[in-house]
Amino acid sequence: MNKGSFQNGYMCLAIETFGITKKFTQMRSFQEILKAPFSWKEVVALQDVSLKVKQGEVFCLLGPNGAGKTTLIKILCTLMLPTEGRAMVNGLDVVAYPAKVRKAIGYVISEERSFYWRLTAWQNLKFFGILNNIPAAELTQRISHVLKLVGLSDKAKTLFKDFSLGMKQRLAIARSLLTDPQVLFMDEPTRSLDPASAESLRCFIRRQLVDREGKTVFLATHNLKEVEEIGHRLAIIHEGRVKACGRPQDLLLERLERYVIRLQSLPPDFIGRLSQQLDGQISIKADGMSELEITLGAATDTEAAESRLQIPDVIACMVSLGARIEGCLKKEIPLSEIYAAYTRDDKIMD
Amino acid sequence: MKIGSMLLHFFSKALILLDLLLEVTFKDFKEIRNFCKSVDRLRIKNNIKNEWSFKGLSFARKALAFIQRDFIEETSYKFSFFLQFFSIFISVLVFYFIAKLFGAAASAFLAPYGGDYFSFVLIGVAFSNYLEVALHSFSSSIRNAQMTGTLEAVLVTQTEIPTIIISSSLYSFLWTSFRVVVYLLIGILLFKVNISQANFTAAGVILLLTITTFSSIGIISASFIMVMKKGDPVANIFSGLSWFLGGVYYPIAVLPAWLRKFSYLIPLTYSLEGMRLALLKGYSLRELSQNIMGLGLFSLIMLPLSVLCFRLAVDKAKRDGSLTHF
Predict the structure, then answer these.
(1) Please, which residues bridge with residue A257 across strands?
(2) What is the DSSP string of B74-106?
(3) Is residue A2 scored above 60 in pLDDT?
(4) Which of A129, A191, A270, B174 has the fewest CB atoms inside 10 Å of its own CB, making it the most exposed?
(5) What is the pLDDT of residue B247?
(6) Surface-to-core class of residue A195, CB atoms within 10 Å of its CB (0-12 exposed, 13-18 middle, 19+ buried)
(7) How far A189 CA sits from the closest chain B CA (Å)?
(8) If you measure CA to CA, which chain A residue comes closest to B151?
(9) Residue A110 in contact with partner chain B when CB distance is under 8 A
(10) Sign of CA dihedral A37, A43, A47, A49
(11) DSSP helix/strand/coil, A193
C-alpha cells in the first residue's frame, strides 16, 4: 500500500530536484597555495540536475564511479547543501526543512563501518531507533519487525563484528526501515556482495519494499544488472550531468534502434556502399552471409529521435543498391550499450 | 538578579539530570526504560503537546542511549578498562612521594589551602581531568565518528547535531567524575587526605560552572575539527596555558606578579582554587563568590560564542560537503 505524502489534496512526488548544482573546492598543494593564495579551484560534482521520482517506484541512478551519484543522495538526505538549485523529498525542501525530510526518509549506508562493531544487532538498532525518536513502547516491536523482515531475527544478539558482509548489508536496510519511511535511499546496496546475496537483496528490495510495502526506492548504482532487474525508471548520470532519464525501453528508443535484416544474398562490397550512401549515419554489422545487423542512431549525437534516420529510409536505400530483402526484425538492445552510448564509456560492468 | 536566578534554575535542572544519569548508568537501565515507556504511554494517553517537556525527555533518552553505547563499547575492551584504575593508583602514589619530598618547604604558599601539598595537588590533578575531557571529548567524538564511519549514520537520524555532540561526550564526563571520586577515595582512605570540613554544595556549584565553561571551549575546539579535521589550535593552546598558569601542580602565588595576572584569564585558575577552598577549607558559596563570578562570566561569554561557532562550522562543512570527511 502506497502511503505517499499529500499536499493540498494531491499526492506529491517522492523526490523532485530543480537544477541542482554542487561545486566543491579542490584541495591544493602547498606550491599552488604559495603561487596564488587567494584563488580557489572548483570541481563541479553535479551540474543542473533535475529529476522527478514518483511514489512507489524504484528509481535507479546509473553512472560510473565519480559521476556524482553519492553527492546527489547526500544532498537529498540533508547531509550536504547544494550550491545551486532546489530539492524536495515528499514535498519538503531539503534545505528549508531538513529535520522533516529526515523523518520521511531512510538512508541505507552500504559502508559497514557505519555500525558499532562491539554492539549486537539489537543494541545497534535500539540506539538508532532512539535517535529516530521511536517511542520506547514501540521500539522493541519495531526492531523485531525489521529484523524479521530482513531475515535476521535469529541474529539479534550477535555482535555486529561477527556478521558476514551480506548480513551487515541487510542490517543496514533494517536500520533504514526502523521509522517505516516512505522514501529509501540506497547507495550501491549490493556492493561487495556475492552474486547469490546480491540477487536475494535485489529481490527483497523490489518485491518486499516496493511491491508489497509501496515504498519509493532511490538507488544509486553502477551495476546494469541491478537496474534491469529492479528499476522502474533510471537516470544515467555522467560527470555530474543527467544524460538521460526515463524507463529503460524509452531510453532505448530515444537513443538506439537495432534491426536484423535478412537478405537473399549479400552483394559484393554492399556494406561499404550502403554506409557511404547513408553518410555513416548507421552502424552495420554483417551477421553471417545473408544477415545484416543495422543500428540506427548509434553515434552519440544529441539529435532528437524524430530527425534521425528511420528504418524505411535504410531499407529504401538498400533496395536502390540492388539488395533483395527477405525480412526485417527489430532486436532488443542491452542496457549496457545504451549506457555506453550516453556515457561514451566502454568499460561497463556486467 | 534575573540572570542569577536563571543560572541557578539551569544548574538545578542540570544537577537533576546529572544525578539521574549517574543513577541510571550505574544502577539499572531497566528502570529508566520502564520510566520512558510509562512517560510515553502517558504522553500518548493525555495527548501532551508540551514541546519543551517532550524535547527535554527526548534529550534525556538520547543522552542515555549514547552513554549506554559508550559504556558497552568501553567495557568490551576489558583489559584497557581495568588498566585505567591502575594508572590512577600509580599517579596518586607519584604525587604522594613528591609531596613527601617537599615536606613543609612550600607551606607558605599552600597556607590558604591547609598547607598540605599532597591534598593540594590531588585535587588539582583530579579536577583538571575535567579540563582535558571538556577540551577533547567533543572534538574527539566527532573525529572518531568521522574516522569509524558512524557519523553519517547518526547525522541522518532525527537527532539534531548539538544533541549528538553533547550526548557523545557525556560518557567521558561521567567516567571522569568516577575517576575523580576514585582519586579522592584513594587520597582519603590510603593517604589520609582530610576533607572533613568540605562544603559539597559549593564544590558542586564550582564543578557545574567549570564543566559549562570548559565545555564551551571544547565545543569551539570541536568546531575547528568539524572544518579543519585535524590540528585544532584552540584545545592545544588553551590546554598548555591552563596547565602552566592554572595552578594544577603549584599555587599561582609562586608565579611572578606579571605572569600571575594572566592566570586570572584562565578559567581553570578560578575552578581549582574554588574547588580546593570548598573541599579542604569548607568555604561557603558567599566566600567563593569571586571564583563563582569569574567562572559564571566565562560561561556567559563562552557558551553563546561556542554555539555560534559550532553552527557556523556545521554550515560550512555542509556547504563544503566535508561533514563526514576526515
Answers:
(1) A296
(2) HHHSHHHHHHHHHHHHHHHHHHHHHHHHHTTTT
(3) no
(4) A191
(5) 85
(6) exposed
(7) 15
(8) A114
(9) no
(10) negative
(11) coil
* Interface membership of B277 toward A (CB under 8 Å): no
How far is CA B286 from each of CA A148, A169, A255, B6, B283, rounded to the nearest angstrom?
Answer: 61, 60, 83, 18, 8
Query: Cβ contact (<8 Å) for A130 and B320?
Result: no
Q: Tell me, what's the pLDDT at A17? A: 94
Residues A135-176 pLDDT 10s:
988 999 999 999 998 889 999 999 999 999 889 989 999 999
Q: Best of B42, B156, B311, B312 to disrupt the A interface by mutation (most A CBs within 10 Å)?
A: B156
Report pLDDT for B134: 86
Nearest beta carbon to residue B65 from set A111, A130, A137? A130
CA B249 to CA B266: how far, in whole Å? 15
Chain A nearest-CA residue for B318: A80
pLDDT band at A96 (very low <50, low <70, confident <90, very high): very high
Please, which residues 171-190 of chain B have a Cβ atom closer than 8 Å to chain A? none
Counting residues of chain A whose pLDDT is more than 70, the rounded percentage is 88
Smallest CA–CA separation between B46 and chain A, in Å?
15
Nearest partner of A101 among A111, A109, A110, A91, judged by Cα: A91
Determine contact, residues B288/B216, Cβ cutoff 8 Å: no
**pLDDT class of B20 with cuts at 50, 70, 90:** very low
ipTM of model over 0.85: no
Q: Do B154 and A131 touch (CB under 8 A)?
A: yes
